[in-house]
Here is the input.
Amino acid sequence: MKGLIIYLWLTVFHFLPGTEVSNACDYAGSNLSYIKSNTEKAINADKIKMIHYYAYKALSAIDKSKQQFEDCGCEYAQKSIEGGKNYLKKAIKASSVLSSRMLLEKALEHARGSEEALEDHAEIHSSEYGTDLLAVNTKESAEKRNFAKPIGGKDLEDRIDASLINFEVSLQKVINTLPCKEAQTYVTKVFERCELQLLKTDLTEGKRYYNLRTKEIAESALVELSNRCP
Here is the structure.
């Protein structure tokens, strides 16, 4: 049975929960704060020399944390910060304060996007199966995000619904493969986790809808399990 659980864990969710991965995510998150701070200092600097100085510090931090981003496993966070790295390089080469600042603003957007992806990804490692399924499709949904034009309303809901298709398929594999009691325990944790998230007052529109839809999918799976299991 233990072997079956490990197999599902690897083939269905493609995550590697554990202390080493969690530490890598924490380290990457800490470095992101440093990267953002120095990028902001570069934006606020008045002289091109100081702009280049702070931008280089941010760039160096990205290079030093590359392995931690890879070990963390949040692909979108990694891709986003790499995009920020490219803008930082251009900002360092820029010869005017105005052009540097424009490029640095882009770099900061990417750093913020990377940080948001890491926050969504972080709690994957909190349980045996990774019960924070808000993060399961972070990469797919976030890849469709346009930083310059934030989306909302029906457009946002449609994108989240699309990103949850793979999750729904994965959850179906879990309830079809695990013994009834284990499957019920797992899906119940997903359901309860979403309920707790929905109690928070600071959720973004996207996260609130994501948790609501994930809760609905889990609830449907619980109904299916109750009809199937003795």
